[in-house]
Design goal:
Number of strands: 6
Helix content: 25-40%
Radius of gyration: 19 Å
Distance between the termini: 24 Å
Strand content: 5-15%
Structural class: alpha+beta
Shape: globular
């Protein structure tokens, strides 16, 4: 999610009266095992800055948990509501991140590139010694955590991007990104009726295809969790809470598709998924920041979240979420979600 103003604030996006278009990540350096971009993998050197409201940042939160990288890659959680100075650390004492010592994420961007003109987006990975932003490439960050940070993975960590399945994973993720992950934004920030109708139709056309695919298999690709499931989950978990009403993606609710609703509950109840989700942050961000869509900034009381914890029965389809590995342990105490953010 990006933007340096309170009305332009989501996922490297540019909003306004022009057709919605998501910009490319400006800082695309990679943190790799061989350090070829000048940023070698090193435990404790980098800090992940994320908003629990943001679906793009939430991908990184899930992957980090599943791979057991909590100690190797520390976490800074921003306030879900930005102001015109970008993502802020008002959840921390003295309104400063205790590790980076900054009040606003733009300070790390400025340390990297003076007077950077683009949006300030999360997820962002910051080099702690220099205070400089390393990358805001939300598409690549999670893949590198899976493939470049392997020496720091916990014992039993799953392979979320298995090499034999990468072509199929990439293909599935491509359609989901275009029509669902990004499609809900194209519908929500459409500048005209026809643009909205086209985007909305694309969202539900893809969701129908995904539902058909998942009717007979537990996960999107193969018999275990992969990056594809993570990228779909972070949109599905927000669907009824914000995209259905706020973004006008209202042909039907997630809870009205038996397959997708069971699939989403299966993932939510899997360690590493639901324990990263904060519905309070999600709702407050979308309804209070996107004032062009919701000028009153009123946050709705619903939906009822209790259904997320009901039985899903997806285990009957077979598959093992972690393959030959094991689930992650409980999240660090400091990273727990307050009761208001849980079903």
């Amino acid at each position: 999610m990006s933007g340096t103003t309170s009305t332009a604030t989501d996922g490297n996006a540019a909003y306004g009266h022009k057709p919605f278009k998501r910009s490319r990540s400006h800082f695309a350096d990679r943190i790799t095992a061989d350090g070829r971009d000048g940023w070698p993998v090193e435990a404790g050197r980098y800090r992940l800055v994320a908003s629990r409201a943001c679906p793009w940042a939430s991908r990184a939160l899930v992957v980090r948990r599943l791979l057991g990288l909590e100690d190797a890659l520390t976490l800074a959680v921003t306030d879900p509501v930005q102001d015109d100075r970008s993502w802020r650390f008002t959840l921390d004492p003295d309104d400063r991140d205790p590790v980076l010592g900054i009040r606003f994420l733009h300070e790390a961007y400025d340390a990297r590139e003076t007077e950077y003109p683009g949006g300030v987006s999360v997820p962002a990975v910051v080099d702690i010694p220099s205070g400089k932003l390393v990358t805001n490439d939300y598409q690549q960050i999670t893949l590198d955590l899976s493939t470049e940070w392997t020496e720091l993975h916990r014992p039993g960590a799953p392979d979320l991007y298995p090499e034999p399945l990468r072509e199929e994973i990439d293909d599935v993720m491509g359609g989901i990104y275009r029509d669902v992950n990004n499609g809900v934004y194209q519908a929500g920030f459409a500048a005209g009726q026809s643009e909205y109708e086209k985007a909305c139709a694309g969202v539900f056309r893809r969701l129908d295809l995904v539902s058909e695919r998942l009717a007979g298999q537990r996960y999107l690709v193969g018999n275990t969790l992969t990056e594809a499931d993570i990228r779909l989950f972070t949109t599905l978990v927000r669907f009824d809470a914000v995209y259905h009403g706020h973004f006008k993606c209202n042909l039907w609710k997630l809870t009205e598709d038996p397959v997708l609703w069971a699939y989403a509950r299966d993932l939510y109840q899997t360690p590493g998924f639901g324990d990263t989700v904060d519905f309070d942050h999600i709702k407050r961000h979308y309804y209070q920041v996107h004032t062009g869509i919701n000028p009153t900034a009123i946050v709705p009381a619903g939906p009822d979240l209790s259904g997320w914890l009901t039985p899903h029965h997806r285990e009957q389809l077979g598959g093992r979420p972690f393959g030959d590995g094991s689930p992650p342990g409980p999240p660090p105490a400091a990273e727990g979600i307050p009761p208001a953010g849980h079903p």
